[in-house]
Amino acid sequence: MNLLKEYRDRRAAQNEKVLENADKVIKRIYSLDTVTYQDGALDAKTKEMIGLTTSLVLRCDDCVKYHLEKCIELGYTKEQVIEGMAVTNVVGGTIVIPHLRRAVEYLEALFEEKENQ
């Protein structure tokens, strides 16, 4: 199955299950997450790069994929994303490298999809 489709379909199905069973706390966390990445003193684009880099340090592959999609959607170039992830690697250390590998693979798939649209 396509790398992008597999992630998107799985995430959508999982989110649906979570929201079907969500209590007030879960609903508020989802809402807070949405509000956090909107324009404010920092624009949404900057916030997505922060989300990407912190997710990479925290080694959350699903979060990394989500923020990669948003970064590309908001207009980051491949070079800008790679540079942001390079900073992450310095901060996070070599333990981040396996997650960086998967992130770059996903990033390339996103740009391939973009070129084919």
UniProtKB/TrEMBL annotation:
Molecular function terms, GO-annotated: peroxiredoxin activity
Gene3D superfamilies, per database record: AhpD-like
InterPro entries: AhpD-like, AhpD_core, CMD-like
Residue ranges annotated for the Carboxymuconolactone decarboxylase-like domain, each copy included: 31-105
Pfam families: CMD
PANTHER family cross-referenced by the UniProt entry: ALKYL HYDROPEROXIDE REDUCTASE AHPD, BLR3452 PROTEIN
Protein's name according to its UniProt entry: Carboxymuconolactone decarboxylase family protein
Organism from which the protein derives: Flammeovirga agarivorans
Upper taxonomic lineage: Bacteria, Pseudomonadati, Bacteroidota, Cytophagia, Cytophagales
